[in-house]
Design brief:
The chain is about 40% helix and about 20% strand. With about 425 residues, the protein is of the alpha/beta class. The chain folds into two domains: about 1-155 and about 300-370, Rossmann fold (3-Layer(aba) Sandwich); about 160-290 and about 370-395, Response regulator (Rossmann fold, 3-Layer(aba) Sandwich), CATH 3.40.50.2300.
Length: about 425
């Protein structure tokens, strides 16, 4: 199944197609999920990694029975990180009467999909879909843009910011902010400043800068400014090439600074920093390979062991497993894939993750409440990352209670 998916993906990318995979047919004995993410373009490596983790998770869920006696199946669409491409993919999904839409990368894409799903479901009550957010993080998506049809199965920017700022060591007293200039990066900047003021008013922000999304090839001029600022920490939500090239330029220039990131655990960043990252690179994450065994259950140990045996990069998709465990339970409880029934079954649902934490799908805004780890890249750990000889070590952990933040969501609920 997995090899077939990737052969199809490679063919579609080569042809510049927006869709690959087989169309849904009424007689198919599977529960299809239209999966929209970037599989070509600047962040294709991240999209490919997300797909591999997603398929691994579904294979695992399917081995436990799937839902309604059927297996889940991904039908994949390439949006190239472009909202317009995502909307074309959504039209194809709804035309095929696929009941669920999943998307993981790009809050700009997520915002467009929420609006489009709202309109589609209002106009097509007999063909409504649920939008499953597996990684679009802007806080706004479950606040002012919240929707009954949208469920976020990963923590938002504000939740990450709580862990990010609380975990900064007391020795840090100055930071340089640099973020991508679009919805997610703007959300990072806003919530970082908010929680710096709340938890660390002693820290001085020496610069607050935005960069165009995935357009900069040479970060040397930025590194020159960062070095001149005298900041102790580079605090950034950048990901993909915008993080990896930034880090690489800092290494090349010998920049003596902490890299306190939000997404430094995503594929590529550790390779970019290499041995220079020992004790310098930190990230906020849902899990890492070196979480002590006593914090895991038997299921977790076997799950990660199987992943490591078949993949060459770290698994960072525990919320995805929580997502599909919840989805299977909700579909079974609803007795169907009807969007309203499944949504109602998901609301307020509790689900233990692989580390025993009780994750909660909050009814008020459809935001998953979950804990976070802050970890530092270091030597002398059991499992390294990207064959660098360095791996993650927990420095700080929040609880679900820490991450249960207020919401401004005023959700419009369907009449039926």
């Amino acid at each position: 199944m997995l090899k077939r998916v990737f052969r199809a993906a490679a063919l579609a990318a080569a042809c510049g197609a927006a869709f690959w995979g087989q169309p849904s047919r009424a007689g198919d004995d599977t529960i299809k999920i239209g999966y929209i993410d970037p599989f070509s373009g600047a962040v294709a490596a991240g999209g490919d990694a997300s797909l591999k983790m997603g398929q691994f998770i579904l294979d695992y869920i399917n081995s436990k029975g799937g839902a309604l006696g059927k297996k889940f199946e991904l039908v994949t669409f390439d949006d190239k990180l472009q909202p317009a491409e995502a909307l074309i993919a959504l039209k194809s999904i709804t035309d095929q009467h696929i009941p669920f839409v999943a998307s993981c990368v790009g809050s700009n894409v997520g915002a467009a999909l929420i609006n489009a799903v709202n309109k589609h479901n209002e106009r097509n009550p007999d063909n409504r879909v649920l939008l499953l957010n597996c990684g679009q993080l802007a806080t706004e998506l479950t606040n002012e843009q919240c929707s009954f049809w949208h469920f976020r199965f990963v923590g938002n920017v504000a939740m990450r910011a709580v862990a990010r700022i609380k975990s900064l060591p007391k020795t840090v007293n100055s930071v340089y902010l640099i973020n991508q200039d679009y919805l997610y990066g703007q959300s990072i900047e806003h919530d970082t400043k908010k929680y710096l003021a709340e938890y660390r008013p002693d820290i001085k922000i020496v610069a607050d800068e935005f960069i165009p999304l995935m357009q900069i090839k040479d970060f040397a001029p930025y590194i020159t400014k960062i070095k001149a600022s005298g900041a102790q920490s580079l605090l950034t939500g950048n990901y993909g090439p915008d993080l990896n090239l930034l880090i690489k330029a800092g290494v090349d220039a010998g920049l003596n600074i902490r890299y306190d990131t939000y997404l430094g655990h995503v594929i590529g960043a550790v390779t970019a920093i290499g041995i220079y990252g020992d004790g310098r690179l930190t990230s906020v994450m849902e899990e890492h390979d070196n979480i002590p065994v006593e914090e895991q259950n038997t299921e977790a140990e076997e799950f990660f062991k199987k992943w490591r045996a078949t993949h060459d990069f770290a698994f960072i998709g525990v919320p995805g497993l929580t997502q599909f465990e919840m989805m299977a339970r909700a579909i079974n409880a609803a007795g169907s894939t009807d969007a309203v029934k499944v949504a109602l079954a998901l609301e307020g649902m509790h689900q233990k993750d692989l580390f025993g934490a009780d994750n909660i799908m909050r009814k008020e805004d459809h935001q998953l409440l979950m804990p976070y780890y802050e970890a530092v890249l270091t030597k002398n750990v059991k499992y390294d990352v990207e064959k660098t000889g360095l791996g993650w070590k927990t420095e700080f952990k929040t609880t679900v209670a820490d991450e249960t933040l207020p919401t401004t969501c005023k959700m419009k609920r369907p009449a039926s």
